[in-house]
Design goal:
Elements lengths: L2 E5 L3 E3 L4 E8 L5 E9 L6 E7 L4 E3 L7 E5 L5 E6 L8 E9 L4 E3 L3 E6 L1
Parallel strand pairs: 2-11
Antiparallel strand pairs: 1-3, 3-8, 4-5, 4-9, 5-6, 7-8, 9-10, 9-11
């Protein structure tokens, strides 16, 4: 059974840093991209960062220059380094893996809370 398990969420003061990790257990064939999403209370889920199997990265504008998404060589772990956190970064962060056939796998999420 395939599972995506996130870790690293925490309560942190504004200006602080966190590193989120997402481990893929089980086998997912032909992963095309992996991504981090977040959802704040009463808001829609939004894409934070994505990395393709070719290593291309894209970020939402509000996190550019502060967040870095990375992936290990084996492709079964994706991380999100988050620096200079602000209260608007608060939310449940979930990772996803999308295959070449557009099937998407999701993790359960990890809570990030940034206090002012």
């Amino acid at each position: 059974q395939v599972r995506l398990v996130e870790s690293g969420g925490d309560l942190v003061q504004a200006g602080g840093s966190l590193r989120l990790s997402c481990l893929v257990s089980g086998s997912i064939p032909d992963i095309n991209s992996m991504a981090w999403y977040r959802q704040a209370p009463e808001y829609q889920r939004e894409l934070v960062a994505v990395i393709t199997k070719a290593g291309a990265r894209n970020y939402r504008d509000s996190v550019k220059g502060r967040f870095v998404i990375s992936r290990d060589i084996a492709g079964n772990t994706v991380s999100l380094q988050m620096n200079n956190l602000i209260p608007d970064d608060t939310g449940v962060y979930s990772c996803s893996a999308e295959t070449d056939s557009r099937r998407v796998y999701w993790g359960q999420g990890t809570q990030v809370t940034v206090s002012s």
